[in-house]
Amino acid sequence: MKSFLLTVLITLLVAAVALPGLHRSASASGKADANTLRQLEGEFMKAAAEHGSEGYLSYYAEDAVEVPNGAPLIQGKVNIAKTMGFLDEKDNQLTWTPVGADISASGDLGYTYGTYEFRSKGKDGKPVIDRGKYTSIWKKQRDGSWKVVLDMGNASAQTAQ
Fold first, then answer.
1. 20, 66, 109, 150: which sits with the fewest CB atoms below 10 Å from its CB?
2. Going by C-beta distance under 8 Å and a sequence separation of 6 or more, which residues neighbour residue 96?
3. What does pTM read for this prediction?
4. 8 Å CB contact between 157 and 73
5. What is the mean pLDDT of the chain?
């Protein structure tokens, strides 16, 4: 009987020590939800504003695909980088606002969509504003980070500025 009680006591003690650690690691990693992706969109835009194309591309997976408006698909982060130099020009500013987001039940794939605005200067020096809509597909990476694996945008009809 004593050995049985001792075994139960040791089991309870081990469980009491192990369970809080399991709870901490689960809450530290946190289960992603739509708000996680909305927050990432804000960080993504801030990185682009502060660091140009380098900041923008830091949110892309290596095997990402870009689906630009009126142009062919661009596959791979290296190839996408070749088209993003416009973000490094001083007079250019890209901003976007997520309108919706969701994450799969498995918690490893999600999407965001919303509107964007791109401000630049025309050849005549006057401001040019392009607006449109976008959709980004996000995938949880092996290291636990979230990266864009597919991004697409399409321009809205131009209005007088």
1. 20
2. 41, 45, 114, 115, 116, 117, 134
3. 0.77
4. no
5. 83
